[in-house]
Amino acid sequence: MNIPNRYHHSKKAQKARLKPQAVRARKAALKALKKKLATLAAALTVLMPIAPAQAQSQDSYKRLWQAVRAAGVTIYLNPPECYGASFDGNYRSAMQTMTICQDNGIGGSNQEADWTANDLDTFRHEAHHVAQDCISGGAANNRLETVYIDTYGFARQFFDDTVIAKIVSNYRILGADDHVAVLEVEASAVAQMNDPNAQVLALTKYCL
């Protein structure tokens, strides 16, 4: 399925169907939802001890970074488009670029800042879009498909139906069709899974 290039800009609103004020409010709500999910995950981590094998080290994120780069994607940290942006990041298939707007970053500086839990969540989310791009026949073909056969079944391992419905609603209001909404639910669930090593395996399988 061909996907309009504007939909590859994850968490960024494109041509608005609503008044500008309403679109800005919706984008802010989407970002707030994402941060709430990260906060919930952190709280569960405190309440539920994690085995050493599940703990994610910096090395796992370095491997994920390298796998994304090996797939031919250029990663930009805090480029000019992040200045004043209400989105956390995006992946553009046609251009093979990923942008991460870090919480502590200065938009336009192109400089890496200290990584927050939300930054890492954004990176995992956007990295999964790369795998979705590759599974459809190769990166940069402007086509994304789901990696998991039962996307919603997979997502329910990490979110309840209310959260899933909210994710879908937010992206549809921003102009996404049903297919793109499913892609975003899957990417959000993979980010929530918080397993960079599993993502490295997926990128290796589908992209390299």
Please, could you describe this protein's structure?
The chain has 208 residues and is mainly alpha-helical. The chain has one domain. The protein has 7 helices and 3 strands, in the order ααβββααααα. It has a 3-stranded mixed beta sheet with strand order 1-3-2, covered by helices on one side. A hairpin with a 4-residue loop joins β2 (89-92) and β3 (97-100). α1 packs antiparallel against α5 and α2 runs parallel beside α7 (196-207). It is globular, with a radius of gyration of 16 Å. The model is unreliable at 1-9, 12-18 and 43-55 (pLDDT under 50).
Quick rundown:
This protein is mostly helical.
Helix and strand run: HHEEEHHHHH
Biggest sheet overview: 3 strands, mixed
Strand content: 5-15%
Low-confidence stretches: 1-9, 12-18, 43-55
Rg calc: 16 Å
Q: What are the main properties of this structure?
A:
208 residues; mainly alpha; 3-stranded mixed beta sheet; 7 helices; disordered N terminus
Describe the protein's topology:
Blueprint: H1 20-47, H2 58-70, E1 74-77, E2 89-92, E3 97-100, H3 117-135, H4 151-155, H5 161-173, H6 178-193, H7 196-207
Parallel strand pairs: 1-3
Antiparallel strand pairs: 2-3
Helix pairs in contact: 1-5, 2-3, 2-7, 3-6, 3-7, 5-6
